[in-house]
Amino acid sequence: MALLQILAVLFLPGAWGQSSSSRLGVVVEAKNITLPAGSKAILPCHSPRMVWIRDRLKDRQRVVHWDLVRSSPENSVERVLDMSPGANQRVYNAFNKGRVFIPDSAFSDGNFSLIINNVAATDKGVYTCNLHHHYCQIHQSIQIQVDVTKSARKEKRYWNGEKTAFVVLLGSSVVLPCVNRRPLWREGLQEDQQQVAHWDFQPPGVRPDKADRLVDLYASGERRDYGPLFAQSKMSVAEDAFTLGDFSLFISDLRPADKGLYSCHLHHHYCGLHERRIFRLTVGPPLMPDSTPAPRIFQNDEPDPSEGVEPPRVVNVFIPEHRSYFMQHLGYFLATFLLLGFIVIALIMLTRRRKKRGLEYELGRSQRGTAIAGGEVALDCTELNCCNQEPLNSEYKNNIMKERDMAKDCNKEFDGKMWK
Hints:
There is one protein chain. The protein has helices spanning about 1-25, 105-110, 230, 240-245, 325-385, 400-420, and strands spanning about 25-35, 40-45, 60-70, 75-85, 90, 100, 115, 125-135, 140-150, 155-160, 165-170, 175, 195-200, 210-220, 225, 235, 250, 260-270, 275-285. The protein is α+β, with helices and mostly antiparallel strands. A seven-stranded mixed β-sheet has the order 5-4-3-8-9-11-10, with no helix packed on it. Helix 1 (about 1-25) runs antiparallel to helix 5.
């Protein structure tokens, strides 16, 4: 548990960095640009989706229409009705007028459900609710199947695995649901305040949350410049950025202090668009002028000592990494060392335990062997003492009768001692 807490603390900075980047927007472009000092830089930032079009002035940008696909003849498709904000509903079949409609408040509350009164047998088929927002490039479709029955007991609603199916009683009414509560379908939004573009500058060694704001652009025409760079016309963005969708940043007279990370943020809160483009700008040495005098040739092929020849200068710029990357690598190393330490300690404890068990086993074995050997030696000594108390005399070696008598006497004495 303690190890997990340590690793969590070490990895938290990386997690914070990822969460902060997700809040800033999705990175759609990242480039490294190297330019010589004194030149002009153009950091491109184009987005056709950010072209400023007032949605309330173009009613056909938001459209809803219902279509019906009949199984016979040959899966024919029929447009039932369509509707745009600020316009009346258009019903394509005279038989459906006054019988099929959607609520007039559809573009205010997001409820585009289709209401069918006095259901007929010809209403059978697959209905499709199509929602199109051409300005925000949103296209959604919802399918519902309708079957007509004459029995009230068979009337029901179920899911057939792909779409919702309604079994409707002939002559009754039915509501086919199609609801979208997203704010972009509602009227009354001030779109000119929903579109924002801004540039940030992050010098080398500075955290992303400490980056400097350069400029804020609004679709309404409002503009906010930060710092003296824009006031001095060193940096600029086109005035018609929201008309052309071009938010490129122009930097003139590059200096070594201009190197770093530049990020273009595009936010369209109305359409839910959040994009970010990052450029790493490196400033190199200045270019040599083109109009250089032709070198003079001497007889000894030696340069004129009066002219000082300066060797070329090479500038190496090292941009430090973010702090979170260092903390992540440090966490990996510490976790590896802790794991190796645990493995070594476990091996040492296991080895000591096995040695201890081996010593105990050898000690017990030696004690048992000593006890058994002591008993055998005593018995042997007893037997030797009993049998060799009176050594045989050499003069009776050839007398067989004498040897038998001596053996009988020795056996009697040994038997007597054993019985005692």
